[in-house]
Write a structure and sequence with these properties.
heterodimer, A: mainly beta, Porin, 16-stranded antiparallel beta barrel, two-stranded parallel sheet, about 10% helix, about 55% strand, globular, B: 5-stranded antiparallel beta sheet, 4 helices, 5 strands
Amino acid sequence: MKKITIFLLATVLSVGVFAQEEKSKLTWGGYGEVFYNQVEGANGKLDVNRFVVLMGYKFSDKVSLLSEIEYEHVNEVYVEQFYLNYKLTDNFNVRGGLMLVPMGIINEYHESPVFNGVDRPSVDKNIVPTTWREIGVGVTGKFAEMPLSYQAYIFNGFKSYDGTKGYIGGSSGLRGGRQKGASSTVNKPNLSLKFDYYGVTGLKLGLAGYFGRTQATDNVDMLDGADVGISMLGLDARYTINRFNARGQYVYTDITDAAAYNALANKDLGSAMKGWYLETSYNLLPLDKEQELHAFARYEQYDTHAKVDGITKNNAYDRNELTFGFNYHVAKGAVVKVDYQIKDDATANSVKNQFNMGIGIMF
Amino acid sequence: MIKLLSIFFYLLPSFIFSQNGNLPVNVENKLQKELKEHFSNYHNKSLVVLDSKTVSLLYDDTDVLYTLKDAFSTTIGYAYIGKSKSKVSYFDYVVIFDKNMIISKVKVLVYREDHGFEITHKRWLSQFIGFNSSQSILFKKDISAISGATISATSLTNAVNNVLQCMHQLKLTKVI
């Protein structure tokens, strides 16, 4: 009897230990946001803008999976990230799968509590098509003993044309061309690079590049103008000291063969796009409080027709926005947001301003 | 005999994972390298037994504290090795104290994920140097935040605060 008791006890203990080990291999997380957008003089919009469930799994000390399943507007489902990471050394990883393209700040750091304002910055929507992700392979890591990290990937590119429809265009640039890893077509690889410097305490500087061509489907890829060349360059900076934060970024995109594409697909894609913003915020609550109340202001300017070739420049695409408001972090990872956006463009017409409220979470 | 063997095999994992001061090999190697670099006169270390009687504060079962000795067995400092959470994984860190219980170095021994690795940078970690066991550290004031590494930076700051409290308690109860 005694032996049986010991046996049972040992079993319970061992199972407990193994269960603990199993548990630490699997990580759950998530983020999401619910919006209320009120454009001046129009009906408001209420939206569960996104809810994302993150799942990570460690197959071994070296091999891990990161995945995110995203619901947008309640009923659109995406796999937002799904990649396998192989850690070869402390400073060097190889990874492959569906990954985020490192460009600017928000595309990689897009969880609601980590940026100010209900909506993501417009530059990170129309110039950098956040959330920009494609299937690819790459390496990441840091230079030993140096405060410098790198990422380098070969990604699938944007889809531009399929014989009936052009996916990229004037107003929102490359945004409509994102293939997001969904039965995507590929015939030309794209190179993506990012370097981040963090050697000055409180400061992070990023330099990103993206070079390649868009993809066209098999039936039309031989046509002149079915694909365009893209060179994108991004600079970003984030600074934080005590209760003060500042961030800014500048992104320039050069597009070749836009004239041929516009003629073929009947679109108004610019041959250069650029955008920048500058944002400052200040936490109004003392630092020893768990809660934080950030008052912020952001000025953005972006033009998806910075240059045009063979088409008329549309001044309505030369836009600017002043966004100001509050981000109230009621607990770490839970934020209530309220802001107002004053919008304008280079035409004589007035652009409607917008009021926004929202909640955001991340865990 | 078979029963005895099976008991042995069932119990084996519990022994392996119990707190006995044995660090995983990679953590131990990095710790040894760090201690030799940090103290020119470092000779060996001896385990301080942590239990709920000696430390009423919360600490993890896998945390390990060593008294560091020179060749004449004189105490030259302390090393507290713990684990803390990063975004989707955890990392191992060591807080090295001098013999007066003042932090002389904090180092991340093993960092396991891509997000938040900036906390492993020497200059950022040097902000912890000089705090003693009766102080507490305020994130964003004493230790600057790192954009894109908030979770790991907060996590390590909280962990070091816990270590300080733990050391303070051990000092009060004259365990060390």
